[in-house]
Task: structure prediction
Amino acid sequence: MRTANVQRQSDRRTEILDAAERCFSRLGFHQASMQVICAEAGMSPGNLYRYFPSKEAIIAGIAERNRAEAAANFAAAGKVDDFFGGLANLARHYLVERSPEEIGLCAEIMAESRRNPEIARIYGNVDKDVRAGLVGILRGAAECGEISPDLDLERAVICILALGDGIEWRRAVDPSFDPETVLPMVLKMVECLLTHPPAGQANETEKPR
Amino acid sequence: MRTANVQRQSDRRTEILDAAERCFSRLGFHQASMQVICAEAGMSPGNLYRYFPSKEAIIAGIAERNRAEAAANFAAAGKVDDFFGGLANLARHYLVERSPEEIGLCAEIMAESRRNPEIARIYGNVDKDVRAGLVGILRGAAECGEISPDLDLERAVICILALGDGIEWRRAVDPSFDPETVLPMVLKMVECLLTHPPAGQANETEKPR
Result:
């Protein structure tokens, strides 16, 4: 009985987070009120507040879910024998396969984090985790000789994520944009950075290769 | 007398747009009310409405100013003998030298354009102009043999702008981020795309070089 209860609570949380994602994406953080989210989730305010006491708590729940998913995706990418193949899978998943709602939600969270300290804290933590995960993947690839051993990994990850964020923003503001059409170019830019880092951003104590 | 009047009106418009930029960047589009903008510009609502009847009109004014500035910057970059030097100047101007207020304002306009059709129309027009300007610069470089003649210019410009947007977003959400630290990597990614486009996104009727 207790297991069934825990499962039911977990399902309910998932339903609420799914409903909130749709509301935030469609209406923006401010106009997606707790009432609107209740209606979308088909539950009473009293019931919803038992699970999440605020919109910030809902965003934290969504962020936690995304973070767990990212960790699983990074682990899978790190296990692929062909490093650039694994990276291409990640890029396709994040840039092409995610739904317009997921893309819209990310845009909303980024925008809101500029003014809402609690959202900034949540977003900052996810960003830190994602960067650390990517740095880990790149470190493994550098050790295997698949990418340049001289690369400044932290900076490279910022550039790679910036390119991904920019593609996502284009999707978020232009529904007619098809990210599939630019995926080969995106991958080429990343591959080039990882295999031929610019002089002066490599480890300068070593000789250029 | 008439010339002095026109000049005074133009100065007043500039002051209002500057004040509005600061308000939108600091408070966001929704919380930056016309009253707040009046206070920041040091003028009465009646006076401000004579120049701009709505926040959308102010955004249109800011966009028009940015568009004119971009056109001038692109023209200057197109005249530099060293194509990649001109491109590096553009990148430094847009990614490093712009103030936090300008960066914040761009973030706000992008976010707001997701839901406000009038802002989406203004933003879409600027985006179209900027893309056409960059395509023009790249076309000139391709004709001079400075970049690959096989590049799909429209798609390349989308990737270049996405990378720039992503760097700007990182500035917008993380005030401690110094874009100077990644500029060489950003330029390397762009140079690589322009000189070695991925197979399959080149003009496929020609042989690979």
